[in-house]
Records
---
Amino acid sequence: MIELYHVQKEFRGRRVLWDVTFQMSRGEFVFLTGPSGAGKTTLLKLLFRAERPTDGQILVNGMNVGAMSPGRIPELRRTMGIVFQDYKLLPTRTIFENVAFVLKFLGVPTQERKRRAYQTLRMVELHHRLSAFPEELSGGEQQRVALARALINEPELLIADEPTGNLDRRLAEEVMKLFTAINVRGTTILLATHDQDLIRGSGRRCLTLDRGRMLEGLVESSVPPQAPHRDPGTPPPGGDAP
Amino acid sequence: MSGQRTSALVALLDEAAQGLWRARRMTVVSVLQIAVSVFLVGVFFLTAENLRGVVDTVKDESAVTVFLKPGAAEEEKAEVERLARESRLVARWRRVSTEEAGARFATSWKSLSRASSSLASSPFPETIELDLLPDAIQSEALRGFLPLLATRKGVDDVQFDVDWIRRLRGAVALIAVWGGAVGLFLAVGAVFTIANVVRLTILLHRDEIEILRLVGAPEYLIRGPFLIGGLAQGFLGGSLAVGVLYLSFRAVLRYVATTHNVLVGVFVVRFLTPSTCVLLMVGGLLAGVIGGAIAVRKKHLQG
């Protein structure tokens, strides 16, 4: 589903990702972790072509993301759902509109739009708040709406960037249960978080980034240990990476 | 697939309408700016068109009037008619008797006819009217022909002001050129106003644009509502201008009819032709489309 080979990323000559290589299979649920500034968000942005790699190859669903023309980016993004820490909900639109908005522009007829929005909101247990506005919801509920919006187009891949970053422990666990449920239905999930408690005991594979370098690549692990497992010959990360 | 396209088109129109409504104050300003621009161009067109009509009327009815002295001999009248017959400038001629001239006056100036009939003798001299050929007014030969008539025996005066018609024609051309130039200037202003309004709408929708991009909405669906918004503003502005122009024209005509009724009937005043009205509306629409297109250039949409 996702394959990265020797991916590098520089911003104005400053390298933020170093020789990142990993693969993810269809249906997997993988955590991407690392401290703030490790390059998690940049890596995710490369996957949905918000950024282009400086070097290396990225394949998502068989599409060569780095080399694709701008005109094909929408096609790539329609195969995935994206969830952000700050939800990115439209404050002037109702919950239903926020979720169905995407389908409206993809030319889905009104009735079908309503049916799918209701079903998706039901999945995140917010079908009773259809006409509420985002500001009327708690942080956890808002994140569930954002999750519903990401899922409404039935994506094969879900990318989440710190989806629990703004939530307290209880709400974070609720949202994580939803991610698990979504994965059980067959959606591949790559979830970036710096919250080690969420990863611990999950039994999921975990990729660790530290100052732009992938410390854990293909290791099946419940929790990554402190020491790096991969590429011991690589010199320690330099100070020029974030 | 076509149903999906129809739904997407409906979504585009819906979003465009919502965008205009959310930035309604700016939308109104933009529509008014276009309306004012198109209205002023329309005023120039209307003035030029009617002045051209006046020139055509004057040209078509351009008769050289040869006033004869009282008691002019038949040979002297025949001499004038011979010159008319031999000239390549004259289409036809006719004698107008004092009685006929009096009857014409009475028809045109009903309120004054009683005063003229109370006079002991007719104030209207006998004349010979010479209808000129269509292109005669342009001919330099006319300058020599008129003095030739004036110096004939039995001729009191020759009335025909060729310079006045030429000046009027020049004025019409000038108004048309100025109208075009001012129109172009105003149109450019309108285009930039619309571009700014659409850009403002884009700023208001920046979050939505970002989300649409993230979910893979095609570019035409992202830019479409803004282009449609510009187009709608242009069309509304153009239509409003033509409507207001027509109402103003009717109002001015009614005012002139009640205060300067002697003018009504002398000149045929008419509104713009339907094709010119459509042209003005299309001009407004084009201004809207161009303004919208400027605003949705990639650099403005990248946020």
---
Amino acid sequence: MDKDNYPILTRFVPYIGKATKKWYFWVIILVLIAIIGLYALIRQIIDGQIITGMRDNAVWGIYTANFIFFLGISYAGALIGSILHLGRFNWGKPYLRMLELMTIAGLIVGAPYILFCLGRLDRIHYLFIYGRIQSPITWDVIAITTDVFFCLTYIFLTHIRDFALLRDSTNINIPKWRKKAYKFFSFGYKDLPQQTRYLKLTQDIMAAIIIPTSIIAYSLLSWLFAMSLRSGWHSSIFGPYFVLTAVYSGISLLIILMWIYRKNYKLEDIITKKHFNYLGFALLVTALFYGYFTFSEYITDWYNSQKTTSLLFEKLFNFNEYGWLFWFSTITGIGLPVFILGIPWFRSIRSMVFVSGLILLALWVKRYLLVVPTLLTPYIPIQDNRTDWINYKATWVEWALTFAGIAIFLLIFILGNKYAPIIPVSEFNEQTDEKPEIFRKTKD
Amino acid sequence: MKIFQYILGIVFSIGMAFFNCYSTMAATKTISDTILPVELTLVYNKLSDNTIELTASLLTKINDVTTPLVNKDISFSFAGDSTKKIGLIKTNIDGKAILQISPNYILPTKVDGSIKYLVSFDGDELYSNSIAEITIKDIHIELNLIKTDSSKSVEVIVTKDSIGQRVPVKQIEVFLGVKRMLSLLRIGENTTTDDFGKVIIDFPNDLPGDSIGNLTVLAKIQDDELYGNVEKSVITNWGLPVSFNSEELPPSLYSDAAPLWMIIAVIVLLGGAWIHFLIVIYLIIKMKSAGKKIIKKTQETEIVIE
């Protein structure tokens, strides 16, 4: 491939080439955090789950909140990226690589968290051997496995042209093994019209499969909860609610990532105010929908006044229990974004980034509130009132693994940027004002 | 934030303390200054098994709110030429004292067939005394269920005692109904007794009963000034049997095998997705081989030129 056709590539050469001290610094810090997490995991495997806050009632805790949170980000990345790709939105091209990294990092980090909740990890293969197709857990296992395959393939496909470009570039100072890696992963792509046609077709197919796969997979994850009869979980709107929340968290994270890359890589001419405006608008609309779904979810539960539901609500509203977390997640997740993004005076790139950060935190708290208070409000009363049975408090092991997850998530971005530009460079020579048809061969 | 909580807590506590003080003072003043008047009422019910049930209600008004007086002694008596005390009952949480007189008890009936019942409350340091009385003529309801080949009917005969014999009670409204779970379902219209003290109505054929079709038919005279409340009921199997299947349905996915629709849905969804995946793999391989072919062609062309 002729690198002269892709002038943007030269701007990323310094970041792809030799690593700086600053880069090593961050990598070492993040790796250290990941190692602490690994140590915590080893301790948990050796000593058992007694060293976590999980007990007979709260069999899930922040691991499950992390699982839902990171998978939500992953599905949102796949979903938004595929829609932008299939919709042929030229303005959406700067988002694509970040969304792809979100997808892959979310899956790599999020999926293992559910394994940490298992008391007998050595029996994990039983899920595949004895899995019953009518079990929501089996649905989830199938969906996540399928999604991992599809997302990895799609991301590989979207990287082929950039890898080919990097393979053929002579002005990048990289070791030979990396050149070989680019050669291997570019899969013989030479920018020939026939190859481009095949590649575009494969990308289109994968993007088209990933949209329903992501929606189904995240809905299945929600049904893992909704199929039970527990108060706070048994809800028919959980599927769309989860998908919407995932998109909401995905947009929030994308805004933060755009701001970081725009600032550090000096991409003000590529990631412009227009891109923030588009995402800001999407964030506002999603916030309103999220508010609507949340209200709808709580009002129907609250109104039926079922005994355990009332107990659950007492816990959620009581400031001595989960009241502070509940109102934080509600006000920060719904009220604040609508207030700041809805009023022009408050609206700026910085305020968008600030609000996005708070939204991510609020949505994590929301997932925590979804899991823990419900588990501590069972239908059959807790007989033996041991303090650690009727309360859940995450231990250092769980927090260490949580921060390790965040560290690995960031590490994937840092390493990913080292091996491919954060903007899909090869896409940028095709930018035309004319929008290609989505449905071809449509008759009059 | 904690400071605000403390301040709010202190202010709230002081407010509550003042409120409690004021309420206690006000209540003390009311109790010590006046004796409250009470309202005593008596209701007569004659049950289906001829048991007579007398219900006395003792109420008062505190701050314009009608309040039942609990645990107060109510004395029940027959009144007439001389008063005969028949019981002393304490009021319950609803302010009611209920006395039941067995059907075997010989009532002090007057010559005109009437009996005077009297209840009294002697009062105490807080509440005034009160008396209530009611004069009732004892009547009898006979409830007959008549079944012919094609129809079912209910016959009610209302009589009263008069100089050693029973005479019909004319032109009295009788309620006829069937007991349902929460209330009575009226059956029949124009249920006023004729000159023979009789009412006959057709019984509907489509009323659901219990599992063997049993239901309770009831005739009732309500709130009559002369006769009070009198009822008679009969259990009959004239209802339609309703099967109450109490067996709990298991959750739908707890079956041993997945339902067919689910298996088909999974196969279609997964099959559809993975077939597309395989197409993608095939296209990638084609893309790679297309590149190789071009390179080969170019190399061959270069050799020919040389």
---
Amino acid sequence: MSQSTYNPFDMEVHPPRLYPAYKSTVLRAPTQPLVLLKQSLAELSGPVFGDYNLGEFDHDLTKNSIKNGEPLGERIVVHGTVFNENGQPIPHTLIEIWQANSCGRYVHKVDQHDAPLDPNFLGAGHCMTDANGNYKFYTIKPGAYPWGNHYNAWRPNHIHFSLFGVNITNRLVTQMYFPGDPLLEHDPIFLAVPPKGRDLLISKFDLGATEPDFALGYRFDFVLRGHSATPFEKL
Amino acid sequence: MLKQTPSQTVGPYFAYGLTPEQYLYDYKSLAQNDLVTSDEEHIVILGRVFDGEENVIPDAMLEIWDNQNNLFGRFGTGTEKDKSFVFKTKKPLSMEGNAPFLSVILFMRGQLIHSYTRIYFSDEVKNATDEVLSRIDNARRETLIAQKKENYYLFDIYMQGDKETVFFDI
């Protein structure tokens, strides 16, 4: 038998809690040092979503909320593999995504940006990784949009991702960006990530995943916290 | 070793993706805040999340995890009149002689990486000898303990200030 301990967040790549250029962190980031917790069964377990019956089009945002036609914008395929730091793929784990439409407008009721909504695009989807840790979504490339952080602030094109992994230490919410986006170097949310981590948030154009006459492909892999197995009993 | 994928904020617009039914969007929710069937014995936990100026945060999302009962809940703070969160769940069980607790994962705009905390319960005698609680200064220990009221437990979360909740590095 062995007991696994999951590695801590790697702060060489994760953003700090307080990053004043992203103004909302100033009143919302914890100020006291975190209390180190020995991982117990509560931390070394997590919800399993394997039993959920996903709908046929839950992974296809170009089809999952059609009302009277096709959603507008550039169709894309986003795919990749979920690994842990040890390089092991993570099968059958839930991935949820949400995003703005091609005009940079979110369906969310508090989004006040006056770009048009698309009646045929909700912008939410989910899927499970397969037995080899792979996932695939079809969607519409999201547009950039303005936000109130500072004068003339615009978010780069991005898709929000939520992942569970194998236990609650693995929980990850992040954003996937697109290669060559000129807004990245002006975005404090992206720039809060230390330089060493930034490329890890930018998807790669993938001609192999591009579907002829249909959609451009992008690859985006995830790496969740891994473990060091400590044998405490000889087999 | 591969490098971990960096965290980014959940942002203000998660509701139609992560908590759609709660916010009345036409999409299926994979997790809810009511984790029991109507006739099961249960508890109700509610509270609000406050920022560094003690303003109520109306766009946070909490997840709770109870490994022994295998219950996972999720709720956003944007739909109740007073911007509280509410969970209806089973009372967790004591593990290895320690006090019972729920694990909490907290997300919000303005958090670049999520926060972990725990909900303990004020009517548990085992709090006094709990391995985790007993390592925390008296002054801050109370921030982890939901206060029993007539028919619910109150658990407010403070991100900063004198009442700042204890957050864990797990």
---
Amino acid sequence: MIEFVDISLGDGPQVQCGRCAGSPERAAFRSGAEVVEEAGAACKGWSRGTGPNIRLTGAEPFTHQELPRIVAGVMEAGCRRLAIDTDAVALRSAQNAHGALSAGVRHIRVTFLAGTEGVHDALAGMPGIFDSTREGVAAYRATADAAQLPVSITVAVPVCRHNLRDLPSAVGAAVEAGADRVEMSVTDGGIDLAAAVPWIVAACDTGVVNGVWVEVGGVPFCMLAGYDMHLADAVRGRDGSKPPVCTLCPLDGVCGGAPVGASADQLALLAPPPFAAKLAPQIARARAQEVC
Amino acid sequence: MAQPMRTVLLGLNSPGYRSLALGYLRAYAEADSALAGRCAFETLDLDTSVDPWWAAWRVLGLEPDVLGISVTCWNARAVYEVCRIVGSVRPECAIVLGGPEVGPAAEDVLAAHPEVSAVVRGEGEVTFAGLLAELARGGKAWRVDGLALRRGDEIVSTPDRALVADLDSLPSPYLTGLLQPLDGGAYLETYRGCPHRCAYCFEGKGYGKIRSFSDARVAAEIEAVATAPGVKSFSFIDPVFNLTDGRLRKFADWMAPHVARGLRLHTIEVDIERVDDEAAALLREAGVASVETGPQTIGAAALAACDRPFDAMKFAAGVRALRAHGISCECDLIVGLPGDSAYDFLAGLRFCFDLDPGKVQSSTLHVLPGTGLWERALELGLEFDREPPHEVIATPDVSFRDLRRAEVMASSLQSIYRARV
């Protein structure tokens, strides 16, 4: 509903499940000028509602030598909401937290693979990272509160075969860390979604009863019966009927209906990795029709 | 000579505010010749953070003969707790309630709260003073119009009281010095009633037509509040500040000298669909820094159920005009209105965010006594908490769980919206 354009800073080590995918050991950054140019173009042509809003993704931003210049350039381009994907380790330093806030970084997104230090660190393959991230988030929030600057903290929870049972506790940890929002997304193409859904809905409930919203990506709404609001950006104005695209969906036989008038982006959101390839032609066709 | 009747007026206000209603009650009663020398007043302006037991402790320390409390949906639970304690410890004290929470349901309140002696229905100043006069002389309270009260074992309502025809006959709490303006927390009232009849709202308090204080009175109150020590901003309690352009012109003139030295008006409620460039300029001249407005909902079914007009184009134009003049706008939405699904509410959120008004605020529907929704709740299938603050529990269009989800999602989105440069 409040959209961000993701702009990659490059590739590099990230907090992610090491059992699912390896991570580059060394960062390969894009140049600051290149990033700022892309951000400038995104700001200039902004047509996505309140904004422009940019999120710097990819490699850890605080290891990019040109970060101050990039942030300044993005803000100069007219960005109103600047978010960064970070492990927040650098934000443990009050000086860094203050510097980021002063420069205009009012949104951070950190990743929790689980709700406990042991599981998170083991999956990430980075001993001590869970506590360091939480300390960084706390310092960022405290610095913002002291300066009376409104900030928003998002916790990303990638869902894979290895952390299913930890999803509710990961949301609990996000609550404890002061998150405003959790983004839970299925990233594992080989996951058994039917087995994952009970854990995902339990995590959604954990968020709601603790006052923190959990948005789910990568799961078709038909598998989240009663929880479709958690896919709110993808599902709107549903009246029960199905658009033609559903006929080729492998879940068509059990699907109760997809959003009427869904955009290509929304359809893409509805298609989890195992089915994305099969839906690709329909998504491409819908996108072409929208362009027309 | 008999001791004057000790009358304590208790306000349980939002933090940072004092009760304007109690100010009016006391100012009128103190000016009433029938009460001269027979009644002594003390106002306890506390806030809702005070534990009701300690509020009762403060009240009882004053050994009141009469305790008057203004009740709204959000302080009612605390008020009833205070009443129970005071009624237990000092049963000889007459407890009198008034305000929007209890007036429209006066007899029910008396039935549910045996320690309460009487409830003022509707406009309170004249009725409350009349009741005090009867109590002071040991007379018959049931002779006072505008009350619900106990007569023996019965609960009875006296005839409705006519509205005050000349609002200037009500002494000003500010001009009499009874109410000291607080920075940011002072509110002025320039008229009573509301031009709209939205079914969820009781701001018009069923008064029907609009009655205004005179220009001279309003100008004098503005002068008093604007020049009070430490006051840098204040507000108006009027449901629609921009009733007419002519009225805005007057406010701009009255406020001009104060605006010049930096004083600002905050959280002014406006009918935004009537705000064009000229009106926005006048609001700016009047020192308005921020306004509060709807749309409450953009769902056609809910708008119809609530008797509320909405023109998206005019609304958006109003927000743009205000922004162009540097005025921050708070767009309010209500989740749980009859006819609105959770997705209708989310569409309203998107509509507001896309306008980029400055602030977007959502709240859950409260089915308030005296409102159209209160009266039609059964017909509309509204499940709501009968206990104050009367939050909606579920509607035919949105389940209990989805209502709670919508609240949490809205809160999350608002935090994202707020976090900007």
